[in-house]
Structure formats: C-alpha cells, structure tokens
Design a protein that fits this description.
Keywords: Signal
Organism: Gordonia prachuapensis
Protein name: Copper(I)-binding protein
Shape: elongated
Radius of gyration: 29 Å
Pfam families: PCuAC
Structural class: alpha+beta
Order of helices and strands: HHEEHEEEEEHEEE
Number of strands: 10
Helix content: 10-25%
Number of helices: 4
Length: about 210
C-alpha cells in the first residue's frame, strides 16, 4: 500500500514537472516582479514599478511644497508590430507632470523613466542605457503625495488609451533598518551562602 502511494506521488511529481516545463513561457509572463511600485495594463502597454521617488534632499520641504517629485516606471510594449507613444500624464488637484525625452515605445521594447532608490544596475550596462531613460517630474501636487499614500496618475497613450495608476511613494534605501550590536553586560558575581541567609561569601565544596 505504501509502495503504491509512493509510486503515485512520483508519477504526479513527474507530470507536474513536465507540465511546468511545457508552460514555462506563459507562467513566467504572468509572474509579477518583486518591486515596490504599482502596475497596470492598457492595450498592449504594460506599466510596471510605477512609483514616486522619495526626495534625496530636503524631503520635508519637498513634501510641504507638493513637489517637485521624480516619477519612475517601466512601460513595455508587447505588440509585436505597432509602436505607441506616451502622450502625457495627468495628476490630481492641479498637479502638473512634465516629461522630458522621447516617449515613443517601439514594438517589443520598453520605455523607462527615473531610477528607483537602491536600484542596482549590472556593471556591464553601457552609459547610453542611462541616457535612454526619460525624466518625469510631478509638481504642484499639494498634499496628495505622502509616504504611505498613493497618488492617482493618469497615463495617456496615443494608441492604447488611458489608464490610472495609484502610485505609491517609495522610500527605498532611505528607510533601511539600522541594526546595532548590543554589548553584553558583564556577569554579576554570585555569592551563595550554603547555610542560607542571603548573599555572603561562598563556602565552596565541603563548607561548614
């Protein structure tokens, strides 16, 4: 009975492994990256890691003034033929979003904006890759941007249409936990009175 159960388990495991290998592409396509930003899809546009970067200088002043904040994201065009273009980004409560750079997204390629705090680049990435990132700045956002809150940003595309992304503020490595090693306290000397009566000199073995 036990051998039959083990054999059945082995067959099921083999079939599961085979199925996983056969469907690897579709499963990988559905997996979401472990990132801090939000995501959305519209038409052939896939928006990933959309976030407002925590200011690295005078953060209190920037939040108090409602900006300027840098917006970071990656937009992939999964259409194999047609290109698209990011027309603009709308912010709530009178905020304005300025985009610097070419926002055309060729078929099968991606558009990147900003650089999230703590993002590690491979050492072999050419300098031109950094220049291909566009710059997106959010200003005049009032109190709609704050750590722990999300700001609805509306992305408008020439072909795909419009999608709103609830965009969080990513504090990144600025919120790294600071661990300190605590020094152990020196042990207290214990004075044991074998005859009772509290602290006193130890009489040791073979005491009175």
């Amino acid at each position: 009975m036990k051998a039959t159960a083990v054999a059945a388990f082995g067959i099921a495991l083999a079939l599961g492994t085979t199925a996983c290998g056969a469907g690897q592409i579709s499963q990988t396509a559905n997996q979401e990256p472990a990132v801090n930003g939000n995501l959305a899809d519209v038409g052939s546009m896939q928006l990933r890691n959309v976030q407002i970067i925590y200011p690295d200088d005078r953060a209190d002043e920037v939040f108090g003034n409602g900006g300027p904040f840098e917006v970071s994201f990656v937009i992939s065009n999964i259409d194999p033929i047609e290109a698209d273009r990011l027309v603009g980004i709308e912010a709530p409560d009178g905020g304005t979003v300025t985009i610097e750079g070419d926002t055309t997204i060729p078929a099968g390629q991606a558009l990147e904006a900003g650089k999230p705090v703590g993002l590690l680049e491979p050492e072999d990435v050419a300098a031109t890759d950094e220049e291909e990132r566009i710059t997106v700045t959010l200003d005049g956002a009032g109190d709609t941007v704050a750590p722990g809150l999300t700001t609805p940003l509306e992305f408008r595309f020439e072909r795909a249409g419009t999608v709103t992304v609830d965009t969080p503020v990513d504090a990144g490595t600025y919120m790294v936990r600071q661990d300190q090693v605590r020094q152990a306290e020196p042990p207290h000397e214990a004075h044991v009175d074998l005859e009772g009566g509290g602290e006193g000199e130890s009489h040791g073995e073979g005491g009175h």
